[in-house]
Amino acid sequence: RVKFNNVNLQTLFDELRKPRSKNMESDKPGEPSFICATYEVESYTGDDLFRRLNELPTNQREKISSLENIKAAIQGLLLQEKLREIARRKGYDTLSIVLDTYAKTREALFLKYKLQEIMEKAQFSDSEVFDFYRTNIGFFSSEKELNIQEMIVADKRLADSLKEAIMADADFGAMAERYSLRKWSAQSKGVMGFAPISKFGQLKETFWSSPIGELIGPITIVNYYGLFKVLGKKQSEPLAIDLVRDRVKQTLKFEKQRTIVRDYLEKLQKKVSVVIDEKSLMSLNVSDLVSQK
Description:
The protein is of the alpha+beta class and about 290 residues long. The protein is about 55% helix and about 15% strand.
């Protein structure tokens, strides 16, 4: 179990929360020798822990926003250190499967962050962005909306009798106000107000295809029964490009990812001069290379 000196830990936390300087060499606490934590027989100074915490990825470092957070981070770092020591003592670090996994993981991480770097640097002209926006206008439009009037009850026979009454010209709103179990809509005579069509789940297509004012139901909803009317519909409309420009750019980058990476590799290839020594190549013995593996 890790033991902490809360007073010294607070000092370390205050130093860690200061803006990082441009010169990383100067990024160390003012009192490097104070003890912040002990684990078994080992002690850890503010300077040591400050350095380790500062080496964390930015997104993880920014999560250290309280003393409890910094304690959890330190415990995690020390646990990792102890596990690595155990692995080294047991010789795990020299096993071929470990070395292969490490190499593959390192390569995968490099490719991941290299791809992010390439994509972040990709630029498009205003005309390219606008053309993509216009070609894919459906992706950058508001959602269709519905205004539904509802009445939810728990008894099928009651739902059927309410339907008969409404079909005989009884007032839907008055009956929803009296019988509907969803109180917030019952207070508005069952009127829910305009909402995006996706809010209506599996019923969205049924509602959208139904004529305005037509009685729908009873529809079984788990252990309840619903009667509905469509009071209004709003069609999808294109959103102004200034409102969605960033989303358009990100979507365009995703769509053009292959092209962006290919162009980057072609430019890189032009910068690299590859010379093949055919004489040396012809002298190679392939069987010798295979046996060396």
